[in-house]
Amino acid sequence: MSASVTGEKTNLRRLLAARRRDRTTAERTGAAEAIALHATALPALVRARRVAAYLSLPSEPGTEPLIDLLAGRGVEVLVPLGRPDRSMDWVVHELGSVAVGALGVPEPTGPPLGAGALATCDVALVPGLAVDHAGNRLGRGAGYYDRALADFPGVVCAVVFDDELLEHVPHEPHDHPVDLVLTPAGVFRPSRDRDL
Ligand SMILES: Nc1nc2c(c(=O)[nH]1)N(C=O)[C@@H](CNc1ccc(C(=O)N[C@@H](CCC(=O)O)C(=O)O)cc1)CN2
Ligand SMILES: Nc1ncnc2c1ncn2[C@@H]1O[C@H](COP(=O)(O)OP(=O)(O)OP(=O)(O)O)[C@@H](O)[C@H]1O
């Protein structure tokens, strides 16, 4: 069963990546702004003192307006550094200190705090290619986030485009479900009970 789920994930990733390539700059810019707007009213983020975010790739819904908004409110924002062993380290996000890392992902250049810094965050904003109505998230297939979130005690919030909130996403036992989904259309609260 697991081998077929892995294959289903690969096929779905391909389809979603192709869809992302077709999005216009206007759609991406609009999505980034709308996501930040919805985040302003999200209680988990309003309460948060420290938030784990990520610096978006051009293909992803942009996180810059959201990070600026949080930082403007005095929230401390951490962003990840991918390590070769597929763990993530965390760095305090500061304007102007970003370089493109080995995976093509924008990465902070400040001092790393260690993998344990994630556990000190109230909310983790996580990238994904899709999320389903039960909160199952499809990532890039490297397992960075599933590994990091395995013992995360805070609120996990995925950020995706509207048409990436799907009825069903193939998932495996190691996949860490998300508590919330932010899309340009608003906030979605997955109901785990629907994954029957
Ligand atoms: N913005 C962002 N930062 C992130 C992640 C992510 O998905 N997005 N990660 C989540 O794990 C970690 C880095 N892991 C990654 C694993 C694979 C690829 C990858 O396959 N990149 C493609 C290009 C993807 C694109 O442009 O859309 C490639 O190199 O071909 C990238 C990052 C930590 N930081
Ligand atoms: N908690 C974990 N401990 C060890 N290995 C893990 C863990 N979670 C996932 N993996 C491994 O990582 C690989 C990729 O997993 P998966 O396809 O679910 O990634 P993904 O959810 O798409 O990626 P990401 O979590 O980075 O967004 C799999 O081989 C899986 O066994």
Provide a brief overview of the structure:
This protein is of the alpha/beta class and 196 residues long. It has helices at 2-21, 25-39, 43-47, 64-72, 144-149, and strands spanning 50-52, 76-82, 88-92, 98-100, 106-108, 123-127, 130-132, 137-138, 155-159, 165-166, 180-183, 186-188. It comes from Aeromicrobium tamlense.
What does this entry look like structurally?
- The chain is of the alpha/beta class.
- It has a single domain, classed as NagB/RpiA/CoA transferase-like (Rossmann fold, 3-Layer(aba) Sandwich), CATH 3.40.50.
- Helix content is 28%, strand content 23%.
- The strands form 3 sheets. A 7-stranded mixed beta sheet has the order 3-2-1-6-9-11-12. A 3-stranded mixed beta sheet has the order 8-7-10.
- Strand 11 and strand 12 form a beta hairpin.
- Helix 2 runs parallel beside helix 4.
- The longest helix has 20 residues.
- It starts with a helix and ends in an 8-residue tail after the last strand.
- The mean pLDDT is 94.
- The structure holds the ligand Nc1nc2c(c(=O)[nH]1)N(C=O)[C@@H](CNc1ccc(C(=O)N[C@@H](CCC(=O)O)C(=O)O)cc1)CN2 and adenosine-5'-triphosphate (ATP).
- The site of the ligand Nc1nc2c(c(=O)[nH]1)N(C=O)[C@@H](CNc1ccc(C(=O)N[C@@H](CCC(=O)O)C(=O)O)cc1)CN2 has 18 residues, from strand 2 and helix 5.
- The site of ligand FFO has 18 residues, from strand 2 and helix 5.
- This is 5-formyltetrahydrofolate cyclo-ligase.
- Keywords: ATP-binding, Ligase, Magnesium, Metal-binding, Nucleotide-binding.
- Its cofactor is Mg(2+).
